[in-house]
Design goal:
Helices cover 17% and strands 38% of the residues. The chain contains 6 helices and 20 strands. It has helices at 6-11, 31-39, 78-85, 137-143, 187-193, 232-238; strands spanning 3-4, 21-23, 28-29, 44-46, 64-70, 73-77, 93-96, 103-112, 117-128, 132-135, 149-150, 161-164, 169-172, 176-179, 182-185, 200-204, 212-220, 227-231, 245-251, 254-255.
């Protein structure tokens, strides 16, 4: 199951949105996405599971996983929201994200490291129990910090970072990571791909610079929508953008489906 949002459709504008726009039976189209297509005169075409939904002959519909490219961003605890933006402050949603209940907030902060700063880093909501900052390896060189590759929430023995907001600066003692690539799946998706929580997928990209990602961690939750999360370094290396697709070719070190070029 894929959640099709307005932001995902906008990301496809440069390459061109298919007309008509084909939607699998298990996919969910948000009202904003439906209005976006309607405003551009693009009709929806509901297809059966037996029909091909691929925009490339090399990618079969039942093996495709949509890509979400994740730029640097910050997750904040409620305490740090108030310290950075003011007492009683609450994050203001700017746009919905592909995962249910999550949003990009209007608020941004500046990251400050030993060698440099990165301004206007987007805060994602809602607030969490612990603050966390996710950057790319390239960002780390600019900041002068090289954090470990970790799954979200795995913050033990990670470096800290200074966050500068409109009210004051907060120095995180830990919480700076390069996000480990992973794929979100609903329980229905997990059954279809025959995987369990923590499995390691192998996925292949198409295009002029095909790559094979061999250690993509499976994360399963009933509210998740099918999506592979890569950071900007990984996506640039594979020439991938949000809204494009990769093909599932195996799991846990074993190739189970043919890799096609």
């Amino acid at each position: 199951m894929a959640l099709i949002t307005e932001s995902r459709l906008r990301a496809q504008l440069a390459k061109g949105i298919p007309n008509p726009f084909r939607v699998n039976p298990e996919d969910k189209l948000t009202p904003a996405a439906a209005d976006f297509l309607k405003s551009r005169g693009i009709p929806l075409e509901r297809v059966s599971s037996a029909q091909s939904f691929s925009t490339s002959d090399d990618l079969k519909a039942d093996l495709r996983i949509p890509v979400g490219v994740s730029n640097r961003h910050v997750h904040l605890s409620e305490e740090h929201v108030e310290l950075l933006f003011g007492s009683g402050y609450r994050l203001n949603p700017l746009r919905e994200l592909s995962q249910s209940g999550q949003f990009a907030a209007r608020e941004t902060v500046t990251l400050a490291g030993p060698k440099g700063v990165i301004p206007q880093v987007r805060v994602l909501g809602p607030s969490r129990g612990a603050s966390q900052v996710e950057i790319s390896r390239t960002d780390g060189y600019l900041l002068g910090i090289q954090p470990p590759v970790r799954l979200s929430g795995h913050l033990e023995n990670t470096p800290g970072i200074a966050l500068i907001g409109p009210k004051q600066m907060v120095m995180l003692p830990e919480g700076l990571i390069v996000a480990k690539n992973h794929v979100h799946m609903s329980m229905e998706d997990a059954n279809r791909f025959q995987v369990v929580q923590g499995d390691r997928l192998m996925v292949a990209t198409a295009g002029d610079r095909p790559l094979l990602f061999t250690d993509v961690v499976v994360r399963i939750h009933e509210r998740f929508s099918l999506e592979l999360h890569l950071d900007t370094d990984e996506a640039n290396a594979a020439e991938l953008k949000t809204g494009q697709y990769v093909r599932y070719v195996g799991r846990n070190g074993e190739i189970t489906h043919a890799i096609r070029r």
